[in-house]
């Protein structure tokens, strides 16, 4: 064995103490480096919704966050409406309830949503009988 145990313990203590200051700076928050938190824009903006049908349904309803935001009887194979919605950056989920007449064969609906920035999003609904679909537009 070489060297003094007391000298080795002192050297180890110096190394640990020298590393303590940088570790303390890394692990504790400093008030100078904080960035302000910006709240997301939660204002309702106009969103255009267009729906095309292969077979004419009797009624269509659109729900957002569990609330019915639009519904109407359908008289044409293509309908269009403009809704006021909060459109967060992560997108929006819309629930579509489509009621086709009794005896309608397999039917489809194409949904087009144009977000407040002008980006077009497309979703499809397929069903035989009443449809209840949630479409996500990002």
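Sequence proposed for the structure above (138 residues):
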């Amino acid at each position: 064995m070489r060297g003094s145990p007391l000298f080795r313990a002192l050297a180890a203590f110096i190394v640990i103490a020298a590393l303590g200051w940088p570790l303390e700076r890394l692990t504790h928050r400093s008030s100078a480096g904080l960035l302000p938190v910006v709240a997301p824009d939660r204002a309702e903006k106009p969103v255009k919704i267009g729906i095309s049908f292969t077979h004419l349904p009797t009624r269509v309803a659109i729900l957002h966050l569990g609330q019915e935001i639009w519904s109407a009887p359908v008289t044409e194979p293509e309908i269009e409406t403009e809704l006021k919605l909060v459109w967060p950056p992560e997108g929006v989920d819309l629930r579509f309830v489509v009621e086709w007449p009794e005896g309608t064969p397999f039917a489809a609906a194409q949904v087009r949503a144009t977000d407040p920035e002008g980006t077009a999003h497309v979703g499809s609904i397929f069903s035989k009988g009443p449809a209840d679909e949630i479409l996500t537009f990002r």
